[in-house]
Design goal:
Keywords: Membrane, Transmembrane, Transmembrane helix. This is Sodium symporter small subunit domain-containing protein. Pfam families: DUF4212. With about 80 residues, the chain is mostly helical. The protein has one domain. It is built from three helices and two strands, in the order ααββα. The chain has a two-stranded antiparallel ribbon with strand order 1-2.
């Protein structure tokens, strides 16, 4: 049976990964796609401006990358704490 302090350390590390992922998600979707869109409007990307690109395409790509990074980090964390499959 796992030690109580190991459980707390595992969940603290898990929550840290989740919080970092959510902050990145918020910055990319709300920050770049909405708040900073006027500032990014002058930068051309693929026939449109960078602000529009982040709002329509870039945020989706970042979300996909976050999913794979989260899965890889959790697999590493699970192996570190001996709870992997």
């Amino acid at each position: 049976m796992a030690d109580h302090s190991d459980n707390n350390a595992y969940w603290a590390a898990n929550m840290r990964i989740i919080k970092i992922s959510l902050v990145i998600w918020f910055i990319v979707s709300f920050g770049f796609g909405i708040i900073l869109r006027p500032l990014l409007a002058g930068i051309p990307v693929g026939g449109t401006d960078l602000g529009f690109w982040f709002a329509q395409q870039g945020s989706i790509l970042v979300f996909l990358v976050l999913i794979f990074v989260y899965a890889a980090r959790m697999n590493k964390l699970d192996k570190e704490f001996g709870v992997d499959e």
